Amino acid sequence: MSYPDELTRLLESNLKELAYGEMPEVAPLGEAMQYSLLAGGKRVRPVLLMATSQAFGRQPEEMLPTAAALEMIHTYSLIHDDLPSFDDDDLRRGQPTCHVKFGENVAILAGDALFAEAFRLICERQQGDAAVLLEVIREISVATGLKGMVGGQYLDVSGIPDDDGEALRLLHSLKTGRLIMACVHCGGLLAGAPEKELTNLRVFAAELGLLFQIKDDILDVVGETAVLGKQAGTDARLDRHTYVSVYGLEEAERLALRSRDEALKALDRVGGSTEALAGITNYIYERHQ
Amino acid sequence: MSYPDELTRLLESNLKELAYGEMPEVAPLGEAMQYSLLAGGKRVRPVLLMATSQAFGRQPEEMLPTAAALEMIHTYSLIHDDLPSFDDDDLRRGQPTCHVKFGENVAILAGDALFAEAFRLICERQQGDAAVLLEVIREISVATGLKGMVGGQYLDVSGIPDDDGEALRLLHSLKTGRLIMACVHCGGLLAGAPEKELTNLRVFAAELGLLFQIKDDILDVVGETAVLGKQAGTDARLDRHTYVSVYGLEEAERLALRSRDEALKALDRVGGSTEALAGITNYIYERHQ
What we know:
The structure is a homodimer of 289-residue chains.
Chain A (H helix, E strand, L loop, with lengths): L4 H13 L9 H11 L6 H12 L8 H19 L8 E2 L2 E2 L1 H5 L1 H22 L4 H15 L4 H10 L6 H26 L4 H28 L2 H4 L5 H4 L5 H5 L1 H20 L6 H12 L3
Antiparallel strand pairs in A: 1-2
Helix pairs in contact in A: 2-6, 3-4, 3-9, 3-15, 4-6, 7-9, 8-9, 9-10, 10-14, 14-15
């Protein structure tokens, strides 16, 4: 059960082909969008979507428009997160961040445009029943809104009380977990998974999101900038609350292991062929970047 | 044929009731969103949507979710436009801009969240056939993406060649015109207007968008800050190309008159009862703010 790298490659070549149209005047903004979008990575979110739909017998190729849209949305969030008034990061995936390369205003607009183009892509390219596509868009808009990704980002910049494990869990379940859940849920929806399986998938996705964030916090402490491709130690520099700062490194490692086990257990209850999803789970637990 | 103020009032009370859920942790971000959303104004975009659907016999109340969503998207664009790395405006609709009041990072997030919540609102609340709603979301995502609002904003910050009327026209048709067209188009779509009428409506909307922008440029020169509710003279301060800087004030006034006449002529070809749309057109031509 290893990471389904073939899905990463599939998505990668699809992202490269994404064209935003033939309007030369705005092409430089399209370049800024592609610059950040093509910076590499494991593409965990779109791979999760495709692996979930595969579990219910669908071809990953069929899911490419929504998969690409989810990666575009993730990229938009990274661009805005890196801005000077947020994390003020200069490095992302081993290259200068979007605002360092193109200027702050172009970076803000690149993020904004990626968000809009993501919805356009789903509407124009994703095959499926209109009612299902509408539910997919609803799920993504909730996952990225006030009670999702952006709300979590707000909690991150506004700060949460010291040593408050509950607040930390909420922050991350909004900032990272909610979109990961949307990836899994939309994969199930597009594959026509029955309601009961959607519920099982959501339990799996909740644990996976938690695991993802705990590992992220651990890597910010023990990881190296060169391997991470982004600045290590950002959390400490920003005096940010993390699983490591709240629980200590050893307990954080223990929590990560528990989340992995819970995620795999939840996966056992899902009816489809979930090998690829298990591979993603193991990868997230073992990753070094 | 006067402005349909009753539609503004209807939208206004709907916006006040908008609740973003009961998650107290993120309530302050919801407040920043509402602060900018409730700053008043004629609500031209949602009123256009409702007036268009009214022309084809639909009740404006039925269109409130999409109408509110369009105003949320417009508000998001204003918040980002006002940021220090864009226009760096301190005043909007007579009150401190979002980033002055809440800080730059919260303002960026308030814009981001308004965009996401706008799509959520349409998915969750707008009545209509799923295929029509999907087409509404597609139209809005195109109008706000790289070849729409955000692309136009990019042209604005990156600059266009001096005295280039064509480039200026493209800039504004993307930045302002495209969303205005989406409002009219979606009003027709949701009302089930036939394809021929949708085409007529788009011709009207194109002229209206042009009129809107020419007047905006004129008001930035001849308007007073107190009446405008935003800083007058911003265009000149930023050395920005406008209809006044490219054509001179007198010619700009003539272009505005011509656009009004063209818009009203286009409206005559639309089959429904278009009194409210004519009222909006006259208001935009005569407005002082």
